[in-house]
Design brief:
This protein has 334 residues and is mainly α. 74% of the residues lie in helices and 2% in strands. It has 17 helices and two strands. Strands 1-2 form a two-stranded antiparallel sheet. It is elongated.
Amino acid sequence: MLTRQYMEAEKQANAALAQFKDDKEFMLRKMAILDATQRFQGGNVYAENLVEKFPGDTSIRKAYIGHYLTAGHFYRQRGIPALAEQHYERALAMQPGNTEASSAITNMYLRSGSYQRAIEQVNAGLANDPNNYDLLMRKLGLLQEMHDYPEALNLLQQILKLHPGDAKARGMDLTLRMEAAAWYANTDPFMLYSGILEKNPGNREALDKVIGLSMSRGAYREALAWINRGLKSSPNDQRLLALKLDVLENDRKWTEAAQLAERILRSAPTAEKKQRYIALRIASGREYLAQQQYDLALGNSKAYCATVRPTPPRSIWQPTPTSPRKIIPARSMC
């Protein structure tokens, strides 16, 4: 081995393994020869066999990690990132906190612009060591690169609590805030928050922001789409239901608004909700009458009576059976 006579060394290792098939030292020697001659696929087989045969052996685990790190470095230097990542991930599977593998694979993600994957890699390390200063600072740098300043500032406060005397972390506080102010001054906040929702659909703060921004612009259909997206995961969310009611009313969709107001009223009745429901049913009935859709106007009146008894609104009207165009007060319906 030392004289690089790998062929002769391999012959000797093979001869020894022929006699002592499961000998740990000879298997380790064979794997080292395969690594030295850059035959990493064969080395992978030996590495996995060794771990399977000697699962609790610390020297085997160390050799296993060393093999996959060596292979990962080789493929990274040769410009084969997919294979490099696979081998680094095997090393990390054996030792999640391995800084050499974690740093190498994170740097590869950064060079390829895969910031989210880099964040996931750092988070995997933090799961095993949540207060690790180097990992926290690395994550902070990634969030800064991604311009995710709210998360970056929150993480920085966490770092300062853990390391109150750290000059580097203290110095980054003002830098981050200034950088964030400059970034937001030149960036559409709607795009920022919708981007956050694409990465994290459950982020309620971002959802409230995009709904509010859409409504402030008069983009009610867009706001409604975001609200419905939120209601898919939380169908009984009272705040989202109230926002949806506001949007439907502002968009003059009286019937849909009245139906939703009825649902909200039934879930938690109040005098204010009742008055709003009545007003929306009146508006819906008037719209049907203006369009001469008398059957729908009648259905609207019946829905009102079923919910609010005994007196329906006087301005909702009902066609008579003998004369569809003759109208009488809907009061007689209830």
